[in-house]
Write a structure and sequence with these properties.
The protein is an alpha/beta fold and 313 residues long. It is built from 13 helices and eight strands. 50% of the residues are buried.
Amino acid sequence: MDRNSVNWWGPIPAIVTPFDDRGAIDENLLKQNIDILMAKGATGIVIGGCTGEFWAMSMDERRTLFRLGVKAMAGRGFVIAGTGAIGVHDTIALTRAAHDAGCDGGLVLPPYFVKLTDDEIFAHYEAVSRGVDGPVMLYNIPGNAVNALSPALVRRLADLDRIVAVKESSGDWNNYYATAIAVQDRLRVFCGPSSVFGVPAVQAGADGVIDCFPNMWAPGCLDLFYAARDGRLDDARRLQEIGVRLTTLFTTGGRTLYPATKAAMDMMGLPGGRLRPPLQPLAGEPLAGLRRGLVELGLLAGESAAARSSVAA
C-alpha cells in the first residue's frame, strides 16, 4: 500500500465525542455534528482522536464509537478512526475493529507516556503493519504523545506495507515541511494545526488538513483548505488570521484546547456534549474570556457586520 491506495483528501475535521449527562456517548449529538460538518464542506471525519477524548474511553467504548461514526456518516465521506494505544496488541485490536466497523483507516500515534527510541517506535509500527489488513495513517503529535515522528523516521515508516498517510501535528512548520518533502511521493500528508499554518501547507501540496476547529468554526476552517487550494489568497489570509487568533484564544487565559472547543460549541448551540473527566468544563473568567474572544472574532452574537462578512468569506 501507498498514497495511491486511498483517496483521502481535503478538510477532515477531528470531531469531538459528545457525552451525555450520564457520561455515555451521545449517538444523536454525534450524528448531528457529522451532518453539520458534511453539509458545510468536510470530506470526511477523524473520530476518536485526541479531540475525541479517546484516552478517556474504554476499549469497548472506542469500538462502539467507530461503529456509530460509520453509521452516522452513511457513506458520505471518509471515516478515519483514532486507534492508537500504548501496547501493540491493543493497537492492532483497535485498528482491526475500526476496519471491521467500516472505517476507511486507522490513525495511529506512537506509544505514549514512556519515552522510546526511533527503533522502538519503528518496531511498534512494523508490528501494527503486519497485524492489520487495512490502511494506516501515522500521527505525529509529540505534545501529547511524548514520542515524536521525525521526518527521517517517517521516511523509514513509509516503507511499511499498511502505511499510506501521515497527520503531521507537531505544530512546527519546519518539521511539517521536511516531512512533506521526505514522503509526499509515497504518503498522503495532512497538516494537523491548519489553524496555524494550513494555508502554506496546502500551497506546498498538502493532501488535506485535519483540525478540531471545524467543530465550532465551520465553514471557515473548512474553507481555509479550499481557499488556499483554489488560489483565493485574500480569503485564505483572512481565514488563517482567524485561525491563529482562535488557537491563541483557546490555549491561554486558563483554557486548554478540548474544554474550550466544547464550551464554544455549547455557546453556539452546536452539538458538543459533555466532557469526560479528568477534563472539566470551563467556568469563571476562562469561560467569560472565551465568550469575549469569540464575540470579538465575529463568531457569537454581538459581532459587527464587518466581522460577520470576514468570517463568512
